[in-house]
Task: structure prediction
Amino acid sequence: MALNWTALYAALVMVWSAALCFGQSIAGGCGEVVTIQTHGRTTTRYALSRPQGEAADGVKISLVLLAGGGGHIDLDDKGCPRALVGNSLVRSVPLFNRAGFVTALVDAPTDYHRADGLAGIRIVSEHANDLGKVIADLRARVNGPVWVIGTSRGTISAVNAGARLSGAAAPDGLVLTSALISGERGDNRFTESEHGVPPSGKRFRLQKRTSGNYELWSR
Result:
């Protein structure tokens, strides 16, 4: 069944606007905690939450949610974040589920649970590969399209994944809000010689739609 990307975009913007207006928080159990093996001997956890009732009908689109800041949301055993709880994506999970989307709220890998979390690695290939494992795992569980949404510094991770990954590990589209070009604090910047850059050719084969503070990319 073909997806209507315009309708998807409209739904995402509507959900996002509601989250910003109402600031809904997650209470109680927040989702199934999924743990996967990532780079080295690390693991990465994400909270998998599915729509309920009538919202569960129809084609399932999954959203990988990448918070800003250091990216370490400190998920508990019920899938509830204990850090970055004010982040717009974290607050939007119930609204996405009500709109019929499956969500995967991604924590930082176990070796990046420090104060600044993912700040120095959001653009490197290792980080993109970790996200690819999350995407592939989610795709296998839901059997449908997987989009990645990043906000603030999470947009760097989202674009990194979209530019580098392919096959089942690649996102079907990206949504970027409050986009940034540097993941470091202050004036520190990534350098090509130090971190490498995503292959630009693939990035510019993505299709982009922009509305206000929202950017949507699809392959």
In short: The chain has six helices and eight strands. The helical segments are 5-22, 88-98, 125-142, 154-164, 192-195, 200-203.
